Amino acid sequence: MATGKPRIIVDVREEPTGVVGLLRKEDVEPILEKLEVADYILSEEVAVERKDVEDFVNSIFDGRLFDQIKDLRSSFSRPLLVVEGDPRKIGRRVRNIRIYFGALSSLILDYGVNIVQTMDISETAILIACLAKRMHRVKPSRPVTVKHPRIPSSLPPQIATLATLPGVGVTIARRLLDRFGSLESIFNASAIELSRVDGVGWSKALAIKNYITEDTRSKKEEGKLSRLDSIDRAKE
User: Fold this and answer.
1) Sheet of 7-11, strands arranged across
2) Which of 3, 6, 51, 82 is the most exposed place for a label (fewest CB within 10 A)?
3) What's the whole-model pTM score?
4) Between 3.40.50.10130, 3.30.2350.10, 2.30.180.10, 3.40.228.10, what CATH number should domain 7-138 receive?
5) Looking at residues 15-42, what average pLDDT do you find?
6) What is the CATH number of domain 142-236?
7) CA-wise closest residue to 6 among 130, 123, 121
8) Range 126-131 average pLDDT
9) pLDDT > 70? residue 124
């Protein structure tokens, strides 16, 4: 049986919608990152693009819709499009409703995209949470065992540093450095970018990101730093 909350990646540009708080209320852990493709990533295979009704219609006419869906489909094998908002608005935005349904038909039949209509961001959050929980029950992520292997002293310092990350080791450390070029690029990479390195995968990528971004300062130390910042601002 799966334990812990399902975790999903949420594009930082979705945060102003209030979706982060709504997902947490649904007992899902959102991890904010700037995504190039999709608005929500649930796994290596499943991702969600969210569009409100007006943006959906506008994107049909300016050509953005099919470019975005092509990118989504090429990056994820099980893409989902959520069209959010009152469907009655569609008739006010297009003269011929066949344009709207024609676009939907193309997305379903030509691109193999599943489409769901929701009324608002609350329903969207519930849908995404249900998907995440269902996936978590059916195919839970394998827990990542944190190992700290003995690191040969002859290794380059960058490789030695990376090899201490959760589940990495020397071989994957070399692959990461080959892919990204520097420690800075690796530490700034998103979980989905890390997961695409051979031997990393989704669960290990999340573990690495959590390890890198975890704030290990004590509350007492945070308080000291906060007071020092206040003093510095007062001097300016």
Assistant:
1) 29-33, 7-11, 40-41, 46-52, 78-84, 114-118
2) 3
3) 0.60
4) 3.40.50.10130
5) 92
6) 1.10.150.20
7) 130
8) 96
9) yes
